Amino acid sequence: TTGRRGTENVPPAQTPAQPAPQPNSRMTQQFNPPVSSARPAAVASAVSVPHAVASGAVRRSNVVKEVERLKENREKRRQRQAELKEEKEALMNMDPGNPNWEFLAMVREYQNTIDFRPLTGNEPVEDHQITVCVRKRPLNKKEMTKKEVDVISVPTRDQMIVHEPKNKVDLTKYLENQKFRFDYAFDDSCTNEVVYKWVYYLSEAS
């Protein structure tokens, strides 16, 4: 029994562990090729480069368009300045030596837009309790010597316009055209006979 117990108490012999078979490095490389980390970056860069090129082309295109627009505006501005200079010289040559040539040109330009139908003397006399008449006198010799501007226009039989020259804050010249209405308005071309004739009619009508 002692030998049996001794045998029973002896632990079984351990079988040495067999080493795991090492995989064939050539086969592993053949079936599991190494993944290169540089490849996705190369693909990403290949994808992003055309986008960057396109963006740069768009920016250059916008810059070129802006430069062309500025150039065109500059040429138009120069052309307009040249036209204004020619107009100014032409107006000055119309009345050389006149210091008021700008106002004179403005008055003439405004008068060209008016339909003049002055009093002729053949119109019927209207009966009014109170009749207000006005007569424009021509420039006298002194005013003509000083080359003053005729600032009164009589477009119709009952209207008179005063062209008042003014200056803006930036010294730009302009006209303020004020219209006045009367019963009868005589311009500077009306003779004394026409004026007296109307005065006679008005006095008889009253």
UniProtKB/TrEMBL annotation:
Please name the PANTHER family in this protein's record.
Answer: KINESIN-LIKE PROTEIN, KINESIN-RELATED PROTEIN 6
Residue stretches of biased makeup (Basic and acidic residues)? 71-90
Q: Where is the composition biased (Low complexity)?
A: 33-46
Q: Which UniProt keywords apply?
A: ATP-binding, Cytoplasm, Cytoskeleton, Microtubule, Motor protein, Nucleotide-binding
Q: Which InterPro entries match?
A: Kinesin-like_fam (IPR027640), Kinesin_motor_dom (IPR001752), Kinesin_motor_dom_sf (IPR036961), P-loop_NTPase (IPR027417)
**Principal location listed in the UniProt entry:** cytoplasm
Q: Where in the cell is it found?
A: Cytoplasm, Cytoskeleton
Tell me which species this is from. Answer: Pararge aegeria aegeria
* A single GO cellular-component term on record: microtubule
GO MF entries: ATP binding; microtubule binding; microtubule motor activity
Q: Which residues form the Kinesin motor domain?
A: 129-206
Q: State the family named in the UniProt similarity comment for this chain.
A: Belongs to the TRAFAC class myosin-kinesin ATPase superfamily. Kinesin family.
What is the protein named? Answer: Jg25421 protein
Q: Which domain of life is it from?
A: Eukaryota
Q: Where is this region: Disordered?
A: 1-46, 71-93
Q: Name one GO biological process term.
A: microtubule depolymerization
